[in-house]
Amino acid sequence: MPDHQDRLLHSALDCAREAGWPGDRYRFRPVGGGTQASVWQGYPEDPGSPEVAVRLTPKPAKLIRRIGGLVDSIDEVLCPRTLAVTHLLEEGRTWTVHVCTWIGQGSAGRDDPYSLGQHIARLHQQLATGGEEFTDRSLSFERGPVPPVEQELPAWYLARHLWRDRIFPQFAELDGHLRLQPIHGDLHWDNVVAAGSGFGFIDFDKLMHAPRAFDLAKLIATGFFTIGRNASHVRFKRGAAMDLLSGYRSVQPLTSTEVAAIEGFAVILNEQTAWLGHTFGNAAYREQADALGGWWTRRRRRHRSNPLGIRPPASAAAPSSDLGQQLALFPDDDLTLTSGGGKE
Predict the structure, then answer these.
(1) pTM attached to this predicted model
(2) Which residue of 255, 296, 325, 328 could cross-link 320, Cys pair, CB 3.0 to 4.6 Å?
């Protein structure tokens, strides 16, 4: 495997130099990557040259150039700057070679969620005004695969089904309440890095045109829950989540509908964790998804209108017409879902 990675790196560097990147005095080390990508960190021998990241991604080069153009326009928060984009054909597979400045590696410290919320709000502001809409890359909630007939419906499937089928249709009718714009699209903790006295953001390959709440939900879903040895012992860090949203609001407002949507997006993302766990044979992902799915369904029964405890309180004077105040998941005390024989 190391020999294969070395060959990939040397081939990628050759392609980048042919594309005009003059980086020939660097030492590299592998730093991992996602399920379908590889990343190396490059240290310059010349003190005046920047550290770089060499990334191999299956995303098309044209898309990476578009994303790089928008991200390069951001100057209020730290983000990588694109130095070269080209493609590499290796063993019958086409990779995009992306060389960019190295700004750090996740995960950043989690002890200042208020400041992180401010940085995310500034990131969103600049993505919205960067001149590229990315409306061709929208967020969708297509129905996931149904578990086999002989399998009892897992907790993550129940939680996702309940929110998507009973709540999301109401949000879909009120697009104006869910502000759509370019967002990061994959804002989990490994894509947040420490940057001086603040935070920076990396890996924009999943940048999309979607609600701002989706980025916040992904961060909360991946960093604000703790799971004990007993899968039924799940704790939500409500105080940290409230600080994150307070920091965000100190820069730009969030509607109560957007805050309510964070909950649903987090449920959908938990299903994606389960899917990754099954697709790539990752037992930890599967166990995490089941534990959180169980937490969601139990929590929703006890706290129907505000399970995370992060929504603003409803006015006592009159019922609100804002869905952020009115959403409730269960229409009655009984819940029976069937899917090809599975039941809870």
Answers:
(1) 0.82
(2) 325
- CATH entry, 113-338, from 1.10.760, 2.120.10, 2.60.40, 3.90.1200: 3.90.1200
State residue 287's pLDDT score. Answer: 83
Q: Which two tokens stand for residue 268?
A: 């959908």
CATH superfamily of 2-101: Phosphorylase Kinase; domain 1 (3.30.200.20)
Residue pLDDT, tens place only, 246-276: 999 999 999 888 888 888 788 777 777 776 7
DSSP three-state, residue 290: helix
Q: Residue 155 carries which DSSP code?
A: H
242: which residues sit within 8 A by CB, 6+ positions away? 310
Asked if 338 and 273 count as a contact pair (C-beta separation under 8 A), the reply is no
Closest CA to 265 of 187, 152, 343, 174: 187
What pLDDT was estimated at residue 105? 85
Can you tell me the distance from the alpha carbon of 344 to that of 329, in angstroms, rounded to the nearest whole number?
16
Domain boundaries, the chain: 2-101, 113-338
The secondary element (H helix, E strand) that includes residue 243 is helix 238-249
The single-letter DSSP state of residue 309 is S
Cβ pair 254, 248 in contact under 8 A: yes
CA 186 vs CA 170, 179, 194, 255: distances in Å? 25, 18, 17, 22
Half-sphere exposure in the Cβ direction for 123 (13 Å, CA): 29
Measured distance CA(26)–CA(288) in Å, rounded: 39
Q: What is the 3-state secondary structure of 52-116?
A: EEEEEECCCHHHHHHHHHHHCCCCCCECCCEEEEEEEEECCEEEEEEEEECCCCCCCCCCCHHHH
